[in-house]
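Private note to self, pasted from the team thread so I don't lose it. Backbone tokens:
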């Protein structure tokens, strides 16, 4: 979840039990607050934050600053050298990036001039990538969960309730050893300073998360939910925050994972340690 920090209850904090009860319950019971500032001054940003999350390298320290948006050549090189997907592949595990790209194939994606951290990582393991065909067949999710944002462009792809999207993600999670779903609407609305919109986005995500947690429980799967930096928890400010971020680990590996993280740079090592501990 992009742009989700931890902050005590406040009038401008939409992350509360009335708006998103499941998320709040998970934060209360299965969360370790971790650092996203990575030893640098200023507001943490997505490019270095996410690159740190998925490589285990403190990329803000490597770059000497927090870098926003899309990673440049130096940061891309760090991601391409090694990342979570490559480490999982090295262990002969299957990986899926559940967010569908609105492209017909990997080549079209590779041609894009601006690529996010997760896109750069996914392109190092092209078999992880989901395309428009996968979305048509319910083998992938739309980044907004309900698909409402693509209705004009793809009227043939029906809008679905968040619970249905959770079913789709759960089906992938059962099929693959590791499945990633990236949700960035929380950061988008965090920048808007529109409290009502923030609540609407969190309500959709919470219905999705509630169903997902129920399915994962029944199948004894582990869910890990974390962020790259704070934002939405302070709606009176347009910028990212320096608040701690949640590292939620729920399920069989929950305690193991939480005990191994203090900052964003511990996320990938902790995931790999959990996988190496018994392969499940
Ligand atoms: Zn942002």
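Design output:
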């Amino acid at each position: 979840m992009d742009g989700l920090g931890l902050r005590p209850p406040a009038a401008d904090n939409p992350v509360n039990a009335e708006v998103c009860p499941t998320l709040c319950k998970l934060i209360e019971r299965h969360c370790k607050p971790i650092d996203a500032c990575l030893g640098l001054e200023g507001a943490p940003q997505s490019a270095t934050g996410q690159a740190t999350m998925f490589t285990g390298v403190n990329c803000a320290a490597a770059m000497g600053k927090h870098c926003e948006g899309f990673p440049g050549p130096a940061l891309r090189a760090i991601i391409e050298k090694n990342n979570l997907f490559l480490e999982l592949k090295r262990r002969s595990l299957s990986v899926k990036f559940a967010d569908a790209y609105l492209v017909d194939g990997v080549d079209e994606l590779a041609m894009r001039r601006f690529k996010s951290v997760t896109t750069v990582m996914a392109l190092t393991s092209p078999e992880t990538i989901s395309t428009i065909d996968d979305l048509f067949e319910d083998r992938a999710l739309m980044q907004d969960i309900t698909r409402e944002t693509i209705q004009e462009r793809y009227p043939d792809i029906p809008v679905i309730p968040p619970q249905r999207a959770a079913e789709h993600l759960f089906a992938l999670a059962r099929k693959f050893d590791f499945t990633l779903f990236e949700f960035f609407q929380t950061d988008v609305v965090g920048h808007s300073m529109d409290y009502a919109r923030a609540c609407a986005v969190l309500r959709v995500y919470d219905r999705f998360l509630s169903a997902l947690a129920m399915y994962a429980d029944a199948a004894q799967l582990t869910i890990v939910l974390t962020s790259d930096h704070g934002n939405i928890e302070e709606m009176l400010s347009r910028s990212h925050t320096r608040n701690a971020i949640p590292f939620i680990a729920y399920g069989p590996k929950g305690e193991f994972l939480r005990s191994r993280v203090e900052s964003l740079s511990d996320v990938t090592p902790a995931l790999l340690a959990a996988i190496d501990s018994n392969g499940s």
